[in-house]
Amino acid sequence: MATHFKLDTITRSLKVTLGALLFLIFSSCSNDDPGQRSLKLLNENWKLSKLGSSDRIKVDMPATVQNTLFKDGLINDPFSGNEEHNIKWIEKEDWEYRTWFKPTAEWFDLDEVELICNGLDTYATVFLNGDTVLKADNMFRTWSANIKPYLKSGRNDLRIIFNSPIEKGNIEKYKLEYRLPTTDISETNKVASFVRKAPFHFGWDWAPRIITTGVWKDIEIKGWNHFSVEDLGMEIKELNRSEAKVVAKFNLKAKVEGKAYLRVTCDEVEIENNFEGYLMKPGINYKEIEISIKDPKLWWPNGEGDQDLYHFNFDFSTDPQQKNVTRKSVRTGLRRVKLIQQRDSIGTSFYFTINNRKVFAKGANYIPQDVFLERKTDEEYRKLLLDVHRSNMNMIRVWGGGVYERDIFYDLCDSLGIMVWQDFMFACAMYPGDEAFLENVRREVDEQSKRLSNHPSLVLWCGNNEIDVAWNNWGWQEEFGYSYAQASKIYRDYELIFKEMIPDIVDKNDGDVPYVHTSPISNWGTKTNFDHSSMHYWGVWHGEHAFEKVKDRVPRFMAEYGFQSFPNTDLLSEYIDPKNLDLNSDEMLNRQKSYKGTGLIEKHIKDYYKVSDSFEDFVYLSQLTQAKYMKMAINTHRLENERCSGTLYWQLNDCWPGPSWSTMDHYGNWKAAQYMVKD
C-alpha cells in the first residue's frame, strides 16, 4: 500500500546537462524524476583557452586542461617517457572554458534556475553574461547558484576561469608563520595541505606529480517551481527478523508557503504507513518520515549471504491526486554494521560485525584508476569491481589520498557485496585550522556523508590516512623545528577536524556507520603494537624485512601491507621507447617513484629466483616475487583469524603505467599476485 504525505512541491522542472548547444531537444525526464521535463544540450560547443589568449580548442566535456591539450595534439601523452616534467607549466597558468546557450520561454516561468557544477578542479570563477555567479575552491564539493536573475532571451554566454592551484595554494601557505608537513613532492611549491584537491595529484610513491585543473564532472541546469528536494537519506532505526523501521530524511528548499503531497512506494514490498500533511515555509524545510518493512531481507557481504536491495520511490506533487509528480528514487539495503574496538586478552580488538555476525574482511586498498579522473568509463568500473568479486574479496578501502568515488562505484559495491571502508580525503600531512578552511571541509564532509549514506556497502568512515601515526612517529616536530606552542596548535587543529568536526557531521548524516579518526591506529615500529587495533605493516618494504617476518607480525586488523612489482613489458612499451626498457634508463628510473627504488625488488627476487640480465625476465620475476609475499601474508592473516580480523593489502590498482604495489596494472590486467590473492 502506498503512503501519502502533504508537501509544497514542484509543478515543473528542467534539468540540463550543459555541453554545447548545436540544438535543443525537449524530452521526458529521466527514470529518477518522471515529473520533470528535461532540456538536453549536446556536448560539443565548449571551448578552452589559456586565459587572455584568442586561441581556443574544442572540449568534449567533462575534461581537464591537460587531457584536453593532449587529445588536441598540443602536448605529448603525459604518461609517455618523461613527459610529466614537460607539462608542469600548465599548473602555473590560468585557463578559461566557455560555451553558450539559448533558453526557451519556459525557463523564465520557473521560480529558480540552478546552475550545478558537480566537479570543478579546483579554483574556479563562473560567469554568466559577464556576471559572477559562483566561486569554487574545492574539487570534492558540488557548486551551485541560482542563475535566473542573470538569464536573458537569446544567447547566454557561460565562462569558467580556473586559477592556478599552485598560485592559490601559495597565498594560503604564506598566511601561516610555520610550514606544515605535506605530501607535495615539489621542491619549492609545497601547497597540497592548503588545496582541497586529490592529494595524489601532487605526486606519490606510485604516481607522477600532475596537478590537473578543469572540469572533471558534469555541469547541469535544474529549474523548478515552489520547491526542490535537496537531500534524501535513509537511516535504519530498528532491524530484526520480523520488522525494519527506516527513517527517510530530506530537505526541501521552498519558494512559497503552502501544502504539498508525498507518496512513497517500494518496488519489493508494500508499505503500510500514513503520513500527515505539512505546511511548507519559504527556505529550507527539514522533514523525517518513518517507514515500516515487514519480514525484511538483509544485505550481506560477499560470501556471507545475498545482497538484497530495496528500491524506494518518493513522489512529490502539489496535486492530492498525484497527477503530476516529481520522483526521487533511493536504492538501499538493510543491514546492521558495528566496529568492535574493546580490550581483550590480547590487547585491543578491531573487527566488524554485519547483522550481528563477525565477518573476516579480505580485500585491498583502492586508488583512483587514472590521474585524469574523467577518463574512466562506467564499463571500466564494472570490470574492476567484478574482478574484486571474482577474487573472493568482500572489502575495499577507498584510500584518503584520492577522491570520493562516483556513484557507480558504490552502486556496484552494493550489488556485489563488497564492503567499503571510506576514508575522507586527507593523507600523510597536517592541515590548517583557520575558519575558512574548516568551513570548506565542513561543507565537503556534509555533502559526501549525505551522498553516500544510503549505500549498505559502506561500513566504515575513516578520518584520514596515516596522519596521527605520522605526527607521533615520523619526526615532523624536529624536522620542521616547531616550538611547543606551534606543535600544540597544529595537533589541536588535527583534533578539531578529525576528532570533533568530522565525527559530529557523520553521526548526524550517517549514524548507522562507525567512524575512526585515522588509519592505522597502531604503528608497526614495535611488536607489542600489533596487539592493538588497526595496523599498516611496512616492515617488508620501508623496513627491508624478510618476507617471513610477516608471520611474526600479525595485527588485530591489517589495513595496509604490500610489495612492488612491474607491469608487463607490453604495457610499458606503449609509453617508453622499447630501446629504453632498461632498469637504468632515465625513463625507467623516473617511473620508479619509491625512494627505496627497484634495487629492493631485485634484492628479494634473489632470495627466491635466479636473476638474468633480461628486462622482461626481471618484470616477470618481480610479479612472481610479489605474488609469493602476498600469498604468504594473506594466508598468515587468515590462519590467525582468532587474532586478526581483516587483511587489506596495498594496493589493488594503478593510476598510470609504472612499477607499484598494485596487483592489477593500469589497464586492469591481472598481475601474478592477483591470481594468488583470489584463493
In words, what does this structure look like?
The chain has 679 residues and is an alpha+beta fold. It folds into four domains: 3-9 and 234-332, Immunoglobulins (Immunoglobulin-like), CATH 2.60.40; 51-217, Sandwich (Jelly Rolls), CATH 2.60.120; 357-423 and 520-678, Alpha-Beta Barrel (TIM Barrel), CATH 3.20.20; 429-515, no CATH class. The protein has 13 helices and 35 strands. It has a six-stranded mixed β-sheet, with no helix packed on it. Strands 6-5-8-14-11-12 form a six-stranded antiparallel β-sheet. Helix 3 links the parallel strand 28 (361-366) and strand 29 (395-398). Helix 11 crosses helix 12. The chain is globular. The two termini are 46 Å apart. The model is unreliable at 1-42 (pLDDT under 50).
In total, the number of domains comes to 4
Give the number of helices. 13
Strand content: 25-35%
Largest sheet, in brief, is: 6 strands, mixed
List the keywords:
disordered N terminus, Immunoglobulin-like, alpha+beta, 679 residues
Q: How are the secondary structure elements laid out?
A:
Elements: E1 3-5, E2 13-17, E3 24-28, E4 37-41, E5 46-50, E6 57-59, E7 63-64, H1 65-71, E8 95-101, E9 112-117, E10 120-121, E11 123-128, E12 131-137, E13 143-146, E14 156-163, H2 165-173, E15 214-215, E16 219-224, E17 227-239, E18 243-254, E19 258-259, E20 261-266, E21 279-280, E22 283-294, E23 310-317, E24 326-332, E25 337-340, E26 351-354, E27 357-359, E28 361-366, H3 378-390, E29 395-398, H4 407-416, E30 419-423, H5 435-452, E31 458-462, H6 467-473, H7 476-480, H8 484-509, E32 515-516, E33 534-536, E34 557-560, H9 569-572, H10 586-591, H11 598-608, H12 615-639, E35 646-649, H13 672-678
Parallel strand pairs: 2-4, 28-29, 28-35, 29-30, 30-31, 31-32, 33-34
Antiparallel strand pairs: 1-20, 2-16, 3-4, 5-6, 5-8, 7-15, 8-14, 9-13, 9-16, 10-15, 11-12, 11-14, 17-18, 18-22, 19-21, 20-23, 23-24, 25-26, 26-27
